[in-house]
Write a structure and sequence with these properties.
single chain, mainly beta, Double-stranded beta-helix, 10-stranded antiparallel beta sheet, 4-stranded antiparallel beta sheet, 4 helices, 10% helix, globular
Length: 248
Amino acid sequence: MNNETPAHVPTPSPTMPSPPTPSPGKKGFDFHIDGQPDFALLTVNLPANETLKVEASAMASMDTNMVMKTKMRGGLGRLVTRESIFINEFTAGGGPAEMKIAPGAPGDLSHVHLDGNTIFLQNSAFVASGMDVAVETKWQGIKKGFFSGESLFLIRCSGHGDLWFNTYGALIEMDVTDDYVVDTGYIVAFTEGLSYDVTRVGGYKSLFLSGEGLVCRFRGEGKVWIQTRQVPALRSWVWPFRRAKKKG
């Protein structure tokens, strides 16, 4: 039997907890997105007297102290492309308020906080933004717009604050460092630092028979957001199953 007295183990003296590391200042509104990536729904919490710009018909629900104003946006560009020329402004009157925003297309939502930079959106992609984000229509030109099969106009978003945009299908963010090619029907958004041209894939036979045809070739450094589905492809897939009218 060991009768040795166990060595004394000193009790550690309590130490003062280190001060927490200060977190960087939070930018923008508190928000969360549910239902990704198929049926995304945006919820934004607005402080008292703050205002949010929202695409027409996208408001799903809101607190009763929200005050709405409707304003025109985009002018001729939006009218020509059959998009809504109106945008709604929702203000949390007298106290904080919550609102839910549901885009029209079944798909995903993305958020970017602009800090003096610029993002271009396809004409139907805008969902909502803060009041310090300028939302303008930009003419693409005949070659880039008409021959791409997409809209003649883009939405130019610049300034400071939150910006949300939506897709048809899921959303993938790509970093471009030199050249990158995207089918025109899959482009959702891209940053200002990129230049682009609309070109063919292959020859004229490919243009009319392959189903690939025209693409957008980006150059420079920046980001491109692409969607995983496009409406024309869905239309072609559904067409054989349509209900045909009986003759006679």
